[in-house]
Each structure stands twice: as structure tokens, then as C-alpha cells.
Amino acid sequence: MKQALIVIDVQEIFFNKPENFLFNKEQLVTNINELIKQAHEKNIPVVFIQHTDQHEQDEFFEGKDDWKLHRNLLVSDSDKIIRKTKWDAFYQTELLDYLKANEIEQLIFAGAQTEFCLDTTIRAAYSLGYQNNLMYKNTHSTLDSSVLSAQEIINHHENIWNHRFLTIME
């Protein structure tokens, strides 16, 4: 089964400002880089999804420091970078066309934020026919909310996703 690694929104904003720090942010980057390294070694395409706002005053406006992919990610010239403007990485982007053109059958997801762009994209992928997807533990993260800690949000979503929208791997 031909795979692709999809890394969603691991951007500088989550590492530059304490109020936006992802839960376990340094370990997250280490774990995602391990996935990237393995994908490169196995010639598995790596797709970076980069949230991009269309208004110059927004933090994710193209070119701003917070918008950039995290400086420590192992991005190579052969990797694909797709910009999105909504939580769903498939919505009005080239992602689906890219996956079809490369005959990808299984997606491996990683990134941020668990309950927003990651969740929305995982569910969209499932609805689009990608129903045998994977996620490795500790390769996605989020922030504490006013109701739940980041760890509780992660646990909750993994419980919902596992054996429904994807399989969580140890």
C-alpha cells in the first residue's frame, strides 16, 4: 500500500510565543523528524501542510516569521508543501490531486493542532476514501483549552480516531 506522510501546521507560531507553545513541543518535533527521516529513507512522499491566512494583519500571513514551517523540521527539496486557508487541508487545495497523481492509498498523519486542523483533515480524508490511515503516538499536539488540558484533548481525540478514522501506532 503506497503511503504518504502528512505533517500539518508545525509552524513557528507554536514555538515563538509562550502563549502558543504546543504541549511537549520539543519532543513533538523530535518524533515528527523521526517519521520524516524514515519516510525519506523509504521513499515515502512527505507533504507539509502550512496554514496561510489571507489578511496581512494575521499571524499566519505568508512570509511572517510565525507562518514559516518550524526551523528544526527536516524539510527536503523533494518534499511537497501545500498551503491551506481552512482547517481542512483538502479544502480548496491541491492535496487530493497530489495524492491521486502519486497513487497514495494510505496516509500517516502528524502535526498540530489535534482538535482543529488535524482532526478536520483526518475526518475529511476518511470521507474521501482514505480509510486505512495511521498515526504514531506523540506525533501530534495542541494547547491547553479553558476546559481541557492538552493531554486530555490528545487522549480524547486518539480515543475517537483509533480504529475508526485511523489506527494509532505505538
TrEMBL record:
<keyword id="KW-0378">Hydrolase</keyword>
<dbReference type="InterPro" id="IPR000868">
    <property type="entry name" value="Isochorismatase-like_dom"/>
</dbReference>
<feature type="domain" description="Isochorismatase-like">
    <location>
        <begin position="4"/>
        <end position="132"/>
    </location>
</feature>
<comment type="similarity">
    <text>Belongs to the isochorismatase family.</text>
</comment>
<dbReference type="Pfam" id="PF00857">
    <property type="entry name" value="Isochorismatase"/>
</dbReference>
<dbReference type="InterPro" id="IPR050272">
    <property type="entry name" value="Isochorismatase-like_hydrls"/>
</dbReference>
<protein>
    <submittedName>
        <fullName>Nicotinamidase-related amidase</fullName>
    </submittedName>
</protein>
<dbReference type="InterPro" id="IPR036380">
    <property type="entry name" value="Isochorismatase-like_sf"/>
</dbReference>
